[in-house]
Amino acid sequence: MTQTTQEFETDFWKDNAQRKTWDQIVPGEPRPTIPYLLTLEAIQKYCRSVNDLNPLYFDEEYARRSRYGGLIAPPSIHILLMFSCTPTDDWMRSPGTVNAGQSWSYNIPARPGDMIRLQARALDKFIKKDRLFVIHDNVFFNQNDEVICSGRGWTIRPA
Question: What are the tens digits of pLDDT across the range 88-99?
Answer without folding.
Answer: 899 998 899 999
